[in-house]
């Protein structure tokens, strides 16, 4: 769809200021931004450790399992955990509000053909 | 190490590291092969036959632009997620990472972590909002609220650049793969194979469009993951299902060094810095790869786009865990010396391991999967490039948005053939060359030219046309210039142009400089803009991106 021409009856600036849209935006950003910064910092910390702290990473914890291997596998674990946390949050807190707002916009469209 | 190192180079920046001092590239392949070439070819031919049938069947409803570019938006999240994994898990992921772990131990493992974590950027920040605001291409999102023509042209330029660098690397990689698996070592034979691969790819994309391409990727992902699973269980069984025992066996053969980082990048201060640069390009590049972004349009809703990424993350993550076992398994069972001495060098670790475990049949299966990988990836790249040219350049810039949709699809099909022929010619031209720089370039451009503009346009209301243009052209230009003056191109033993030295930039990967530069230019261009963009359209984009209102629906059939 080309922006701005197929939805004449909708005042997007008005909607953007509406309390529910502000709430939707807040719910989305207040979750994804801290999480995105968090995983990037954790990843970069890991990269720098692997790059510059070889002895620390080479220390054995159990058998031939080193701290480096555990931290590497924890990167996998955190990635999976963040994925599931986001899905659960989006299903509970984001989707219902987004669906509600979308339905209203679609009704609005029907009212003013 | 010989031609197969280029395969690893072929797909992901994993290989921009094979250009790190000490790792060799290029050269023509050695003279022996493992296994039975005829068996390898037969299994591969079987894959092509099966996928061609699927492609022809899938193509029956390909009539509109939405069908051709976005598969009618009819795929489910899990299907699309599997296709994303098929697109992403390349020969580099499989052969390259297994080999890197077998030879360099822990340092090989580092690649896979970057490749996986990168998907969180796509999941959290990019996938859903992109799905809600775009139609077919990355440029749809970027030009939504900015000046259509200049922004589209810039986005199409970076898209085509990424696709072309990537494609060329894949095609050249195919030549290296055959020398190992099929025993074809002469230049003519390899050129012929590159042409055949290119021709099959053109047929897939021409006939099947996005739907056919997606099915090829789904089938390939299934085969690749199943093959890796079988080998992983096998290797673990040989070591009593104890990871520590496996690691011990690998260390006994390859030395204690394989268990800790540093064997590959720990050599000098520069190589350490190079790794930081690569790590940055990996984690930020994935969500800016145009062929990844385009996959989000093949599902009906943003929610399905989210589900696709979730599936992709699980499949890709599990696969990389397999490669950890396979890499150490190859190190323990075959040993670094034998791997390096084999034709294909580092990249032969996985095929050699397959041969060691299951004889010629398992080797044939694994080889066919590696080949299928190249086909699936080139098909995905080609359709992305064709969509970008016909939808952004032809329909929006040349025809000013007044192109007939049927004509647009016709242009896309012609573009597929042109791109196919160009990449065959280019692939033959760069055979045996150091192509790792192409992959480094593709990732660096995606991270420094595409990602800043994507994030700014989705999250920063003030972002302006000038900011977008500065960021895209600046990111593209700086990546290309830094690579041109890097040791990858000249001044190192493995350089693309041997014998001359005009390198000025010490790192192989430009990301450390070009990515911050891309973000900085986007900010600078915006704050220095005199003209404000239309706030009504900015509001529309924001409302649509979060609510999904007005998003392109699934096509009815």
Description:
The complex is a heterodimer of chains A (113) and B (557). Chain A is elongated and about 65 Å long. Mean pLDDT of chain A is 88; it is low at 1-5. Chain A has 113 residues and is mainly alpha-helical. Chain A contains four helices and two strands, in the order αααββα. Chain A has one domain. Chain A has helices at 12-17, 19-52, 54-58, 67-111, and strands at 60-62, 65-66. Chain A has a two-stranded antiparallel ribbon with strand order 1-2. With 557 residues, chain B is an all-alpha fold. Chain B has a single domain, classed as Amino acid/polyamine transporter I. Chain B has helices at residues 5-11, 37-58, 65-70, 77-88, 91-104, 106-133, 138-142, 148-181, 187-238, 243-254, 269-285, 290-295, 302-333, 336-341, 349-398, 405-429, 436-459, 465-484, 511-527, 535-547. In chain B, α2 (37-58) packs across α9 (187-238), α8 (148-181) runs parallel beside α18 and α9 (187-238) crosses α13. Classes of the chains: A mainly alpha (113), B mainly alpha (557). Chains A and B meet through α1, α2, α3, β2 and α4 of A and α6, α10, α11, α13 and α20 of B.
